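Please review the protein record below. Let me know how this chain folds according to its tokens.
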Amino acid sequence: MPARAAGIVALLNTRPHATPTLPDTLDNPATAAEVLAPFGQPAGVPLTPGQLDQIRAVRTDLMTVIDAADPEHAERGWTNLSADAADATFRQVFSARGEARLEQVAGDQIIGRIALDVAELVRDNTWSRIRACANEQCRHVFYDTTRSRTQRWDSYETCGNRVNVAAHRARGNRPRG
């Protein structure tokens, strides 16, 4: 899994999810620091409540895109992400080797890095590999490594097997006729 994707997956899995509901792990300063380190959060520097609110808003926007049932709902998530990350501005920096990169010049560093990483995943056509588990009891976000990009469960052994057994039992309990 690309490092950018790993950081985004870790961020998305900080949200409250699963049954029973797991807590928002951004509430734990140590966990938040660990998850946000790939996005430039300095070690030992606490996040402000405003920063946490912004990060949560961006996380919600990304989950809206991932959970979208149709392009219109995905568009809503992308539009909200664009608005929530609008303060992060970048400039292009060119090197003598003929390379170009974006350098953030304004806005919250963490939000900017999250937005930049998501943009790179979209550009590289790997964003669609980030998914939420199809098991409604789980909903853990994972990176689909299959060639066909059709993985539905974060763990087939746990989530996929449970859903398949439940479906099998439901079919077995139907009256035959």
In short: The first helix runs from residue 3 to 12. Helices lie at 3-12, 29-36, 49-67, 71-84, 109-123, 156-172. The radius of gyration is 19 Å.
